[in-house]
Amino acid sequence: MSNAVVRKTLVSLAIAGAVTTAQADVVIGVAGPHTGAYAAFGAQLWNGASAAAKAINDAGGINGEMIKLIKADDACEPKQAVSVANRLVDSDEAVAVVGHFCSSSSIPASNIYEEAGVLQVTPASTAPGLTDRGLPNVFRVCGRDDQQGDVAATYIVDVLGAKKVAVIHDKDTYGKGLADAMKSSLNAYGVKEVLYEGLTRGEKDFNALVTKIRSVDADVVYFGGLHSEAGPLVRQMREQGLTAKFMSGDGITSYEFVSVAGSPKYVDGVLMTFGADPTSYAEGKAVVKEFRDSGIEPEGYVMYSYAAMQVVAEALQNTDLDPVKASDWLHANKVETVMGTKAFDEKGDLLVSDYVMYEWDKNGTYNMLGM
Amino acid sequence: MDIILQQLVNGLSLGSVYGLIAIGYTMVYGIIGMINFAHGDVYMVSAYITAVAIALLSFFGIESFPVIIFGTLIFTIFVTGVYGWVIERIAYRPLRGSSRLSILISAIGMSLILQNYVQLSQGAKQQGVPTLLSGAIRFDIGDGFVQITYMKLFILFASFIGMAALTYIIQKTKLGRMCRATQQDPKMASILGINTDKIISTVFVIGATMAALAGVLVTLDYGGFDFYVGFIIGIKAFTAAVLGGIGSLPGAMLGGIILGLSEALFAGLVSSDYKDVFSFSLLVVILIFRPSGLLGKPEVEKV
């Protein structure tokens, strides 16, 4: 996504804001890594949420009040997430937040939103710990890592028939959580991993780890983490002549995975678990077309963020803009979104999760696999 | 056996890159006694310049590998050298003679400026360069094999040439003599007719060119980079410089190789989770027994 598009969106939002300043605005934060190594995901969140907000405002806003979005940058740093959450709550007086992206940011921030009675709907944080703590105000429109890990483990055992699985993670809440979830499912199916190791986020040289993977003769390498580490890891595996299958989760769902690996040939054959194609829902066809017409590919979490914003708006609409009541409302009611009807359980997780397996191809795109 | 050999190759290529960057830290420390925290970011800038150079060369339809690699090296080393010179000029020279602390803070500020300037001008996203040199040599040993990519060989070769050329300049040329004189006693050197300001600038440029060499090699090898890549590798290279004895040129190279090897061997044989813990513990142990690093000279208080 180009900067020009962000700027245009910002400008149009600024104009929309200027026109409607006479009315009270509904302030909603869009929190995620808008800068830093994971900024691609922040851009996905922003594109989805701002398009949804624009559509809602064009249709008359929430009970006649316009949505005003605030971009809150956590850079995927837990400390920064806490400070932007405080800022959103205190000085911006947000009633709801779409975000954060990284689970390690969503979890500490959720406590602040809970204290302030702010509704939080994350489009992307999949760590079980986010909703397992029983906070009433936290929801997600994506699945959970234990569901995702189980889909991965089932595929490894049933489809690939692998016996030697190396499990690698990035020592972060999301990456390690996903890797652990996959590992425990794998162990439950009677396969013991041959290697379990962590790498350091931000490094680029994983050759030593790759050689170690080679020494245990793994058939499948499962990586819990994000694309900025997955790219060099898979490239260095191929460069050292390791042909094992590479599998990861929804953390690599960005076309930047290809550029950080250096070439589409390195991502060819990489497997990835992700929700069933978010652009395939009949309800979202018009929105997908709008995105493509305006030059934005609705990849990764764009549609999820759109849906998250719709969930927030629908809940606020039905509870007269009271975020605390909106949380109760969401636990009891269904919401129509661009990704189909979403309903939440008492923890704030989706009642139905829809993880499936994708495969990257030699052109650097990913396609859903029939299982 | 094959695994150990492969780990040695991994460690050597990583270590030679650390060594190249460590040279920038060690030379600047040697001559003006400051830690140039912006050095890692100079390396990061060189990664972007590498991508620009490759794009320019392919725009002009040049496709042969030797031409691209040498064109990229010359372009990147030149532009990064200019960066090194300008940084010294605007951030450090005005503070010459003031306390070490203010220069240190100026360096940290420069580091932040470079990161944010690149982030704003180039975008926060991950960038990539195409693979120029693919393929590898494979040695079969018993049941296993050692595979070394041509790019890794090129890294070892180019860093060896870079370090040898630099050693020659410092040990054998007039410029090197002036550098060493300024390092030993700046006041005396300037009384004897050496333009010490110019020598200090030159040292910054040399440090930046070595970082640029590393930047080109690493960018071509790993393919991807972003505005934040200078941070971790900068810290590692600084560690290497301290390990080898900050201020000592062979020390920086030795420190880089030791750090690279220890990381690779520990990650490979024990655990990659704790490789940084091991490297830094090694640093602590070495500094306990040799407080000025492996090849560093103990600081003599001049009376």
UniProtKB/TrEMBL annotation, chain A:
Keywords: Amino-acid transport, Signal, Transport. InterPro entries: Leu-bd (IPR028081), Leu_Ile_Val-bd (IPR000709), Peripla_BP_I (IPR028082). The keyword Repeat does not apply. The keyword Transport applies. Gene3D superfamilies: 3.40.50.2300. Residues 26-364 form the Leucine-binding protein domain. SUPFAM superfamilies: Periplasmic binding protein-like I. CDD domains: PBP1_ABC_LIVBP-like (cd06342). One of its GO terms (biological process) is amino acid transport. Belongs to the leucine-binding protein family. This is Amino acid/amide ABC transporter substrate-binding protein (HAAT family). It comes from Marinomonas balearica. The lineage of its organism: Bacteria, Pseudomonadati, Pseudomonadota, Gammaproteobacteria, Oceanospirillales.
TrEMBL record, chain B:
Keywords: Amino-acid transport, Cell inner membrane, Cell membrane, Membrane, Transmembrane, Transmembrane helix, Transport. Pfam families: BPD_transp_2 (PF02653). CDD domains: TM_PBP1_LivH_like. One of its GO terms (cellular component) is plasma membrane. The keyword Transport applies. It comes from the Bacteria. One of its GO terms (biological process) is D-alanine transmembrane transport. GO terms for molecular function: L-isoleucine transmembrane transporter activity; L-leucine transmembrane transporter activity; L-phenylalanine transmembrane transporter activity; L-valine transmembrane transporter activity. InterPro entries: ABC_transp_permease, BCAA_transport_permease. It is a multi-pass membrane protein. This is Amino acid/amide ABC transporter membrane protein 1 (HAAT family).
